[in-house]
Amino acid sequence: MTSAAAEVLRKLRERGETLAVAESLTGGLVAAELTGVPGASHSFRGSVTAYATSLKREVLGVDGTLLDERGAVDPTVARSMAAGVRRVLGADWGVSTTGVAGPEPQDGKAVGTVFVAVSGPDGASRVAELRLNGGRADIRQESVRSLLELLSGELGEAARAQDTEQNGEI
């Protein structure tokens, strides 16, 4: 999976942009994957492992009412976590993971329900809902892979939009 992290970091470095990570169910695996790439410090600002729901509110700024009404495993929470870590750590891009790795359901959500989100410059925001199978380790690893894939795609989209603007196309 390091090649996906390396690709993300390469794109960020080429653009002169930075990344911050907010993790829940992955517990630091995204940050570990990114920092396993030599030269990650050029683009990777840091991470917040907000495993406890209260930290999502207190550190990342996720709305408390939202957390009370929907729980931590929710697409809007994922989006808010990504935007929050981007703001708190002063990065161009923020990403997040929240979900249920098991062994028990959480907040009425089945094991394998995961949301990954990307928050970027100029209000760019995207959330993907995953329905994953397998054991706890499998779900966590697939969440990391899916998040890096989502971010890589967004970086590619942003680059294509920038090229289009520079060429005067609509």
Rough outline: globular
End-to-end separation in angstroms reads: 35 Å
In the CATH hierarchy, the third-tier topology is known as: Maf protein
Largest sheet: 5 strands, mixed
CATH homologous superfamily heading = CinA-like
Total DSSP E strands: 5
How many structurally independent domains?
Answer: 1
> Could you spell the SSE succession in H and E letters?
HEHEHHHEEEH
- Any idea what the CATH architecture is? Alpha-Beta Complex
Labels describing this entry:
alpha/beta, 46% helix, five-stranded mixed sheet, 170 residues, 6 helices, disordered C terminus, single chain, Maf protein
Summarize the structure in short.
The chain is an alpha/beta fold. The protein has 6 helices and 5 strands, in the order H-E-H-E-H-H-H-E-E-E-H.
What does this protein structure show overall?
With 170 residues, this protein is an alpha/beta fold. It has one domain (2-165): Maf protein, CATH 3.90.950. It has helices at residues 2-15, 29-35, 53-58, 64-70, 75-88, 136-166, and strands at 19-23, 44-49, 93-99, 113-119, 125-131. It has a five-stranded mixed β-sheet with strand order 2-1-3-4-5, sandwiched between helices. The longest helix has 31 residues, at 136-166. The chain is globular, with a radius of gyration of 16 Å. The termini are far apart.
Outline the secondary-structure elements:
Elements: H1 2-15, E1 19-23, H2 29-35, E2 44-49, H3 53-58, H4 64-70, H5 75-88, E3 93-99, E4 113-119, E5 125-131, H6 136-166
Parallel strand pairs: 1-2, 1-3
Antiparallel strand pairs: 3-4, 4-5
